[in-house]
Design a protein that fits this description.
This protein is α/β, with parallel strands linked by helices. The protein contains eight helices and nine strands. Helix 1 links the parallel strand 1 and strand 2. Helix content is 35%, strand content 17%. Bound molecules: zinc ion (2 copies).
Amino acid sequence: MAKNHFDQHMHSAFSYDAEPQNTIGHVIETAIAKGLAGIAVTDHLDPLWPDEAAPSTLDVPAYEAALTAAENAYGDRIRFAKGIELGFIPGEALRICEDAVSGYPYDFVIGSVHSSAETPIDLPPFHEGRAVKDIVDEYYTILLDSIRHYKNYDVIGHINGIDRYTDGFAPKKAYMPYIDEILRAVIKDGKGIEINTSAFRYGIGSRGTPTQPILGRYKELGGEIVTIGSDAHRAADIGAFLEKGEEMLLAAGFRHIAVYQNRQPEFVKL
Ligand SMILES: [Zn+2]
Ligand SMILES: [Zn+2]
């Protein structure tokens, strides 16, 4: 693998849905073995997670201690970013996110929508008996509400993530007004978006996160900050399809990716 690949979204065993043997040390060793230039480990913090059957819990102090230890152990062998992926739900959950992020020197913070206050967005209760338009409305309303009130993040994760789960792709006219509003807010606030390459891994590239038109629209509106991440939940997927993400960026007219350290983007030429 060429030198300049950065995978800035992945999960270690600290995440409820990642493989238990996938320790942060194993993640980093794997990334080094694959020849990646840099990675961010971004485990889930989903405060007030509504699914009791599969609780998303993060032992924040233990996680932060493990990130610091990993930085000390591997920092001279790979560019390592201490990251976290926040699960946005408007209200109290965002206050808990703020406490976690402001209490530790994270390098990189992803903000994502994984659930409503009532249910994860990938489970039947979010979908059953509802029109695709209503599902999409609720998803983007949660995201927009969150970023209006919460600014302590760097990029939005899988911006159109709901497209992975809808029964039939939402019509463009249903979601483009939301996407526009979100992208404008992101740009105004000095934040960015990510290309989450897991769609290629799942074989649903046509429902890419983002799609090529969304990425093009971001560029058109003046967006500059884009990270790329595999969203790996097991070591085998680390670095997967990063080249696809780079191709998408080039096709949209971008010439750089953003690589985060100390919450600041550095622009690395593609
Ligand atoms: Zn996510
Ligand atoms: Zn993730």
